[in-house]
Inverse folding.
């Protein structure tokens, strides 16, 4: 289930979206749908669309720096095919994975509120039910991690966010954590390409052993 193109659940996000529809009418400027096959073994959950990334292109992580690192890593591990070229018509295909955001609309300063994440939770829950038993959810950042646990009704206190951590969930899925692959995190050295690749590889190894 995807939100309506003019979803009004979050007044602040709706106002911000309408502002950018006037500023940049050629942009997507709507709740960004998931990318990749529903029911894939791996569901990657980000924070929210970037203003000049997914909000512009209409595809998660497409058109901004975070997508450069994410899609290069997915291509390296065989979770994507084709060539990533920063736009939704570049022909890139995801294989065995799907990408969604915890919050579907672009937030001011790239920071959704807790209430906005909660309002979008049922859309995330609708994605999570299609992850097969034995599959995995890769949470990019603490907000995505908490959103996944909240949508599944799982306890947060026993599953704290930590880069590279793997959590076995009560629903027979795996939750894997990584710092968000944002420009800020990579520029500050909090996350390197090697660290991100290691988190993805650890998740895939855990799936194979299940």
């Amino acid at each position: 289930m995807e939100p309506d193109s003019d979803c009004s659940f979050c007044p602040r996000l709706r106002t911000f979206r309408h502002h950018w529809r006037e500023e940049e009418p050629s942009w997507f400027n709507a709740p960004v749908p998931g990318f990749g096959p529903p029911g894939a073994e791996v569901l990657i959950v980000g924070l929210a669309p970037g203003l000049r990334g997914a909000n512009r292109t209409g595809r998660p992580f497409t058109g901004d720096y975070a997508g450069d690192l994410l899609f290069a890593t997915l291509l390296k591990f065989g979770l994507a095919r084709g060539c990533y070229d920063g736009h939704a018509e570049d022909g890139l295909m995801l294989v065995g994975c799907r990408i969604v955001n915890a919050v579907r609309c672009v937030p001011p300063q790239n920071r959704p509120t807790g209430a906005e994440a909660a309002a979008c939770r049922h859309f995330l829950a609708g994605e999570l039910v299609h992850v097969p038993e034995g599959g995995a959810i890769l949470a990019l950042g603490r907000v995505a991690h908490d959103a996944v646990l909240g949508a599944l009704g799982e306890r947060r206190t026993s599953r704290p966010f930590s880069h590279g951590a793997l959590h076995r969930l009560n629903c027979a899925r795996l939750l894997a954590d990584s710092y968000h692959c944002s420009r800020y995190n990579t520029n500050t050295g909090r996350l390197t390409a090697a660290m991100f690749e290691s988190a993805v590889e650890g998740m895939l190894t855990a799936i194979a052993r299940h």
Summary: The chain has a mean pLDDT of 96. The first strand starts at residue 42 and ends at 46. The longest helix spans residues 193-209.
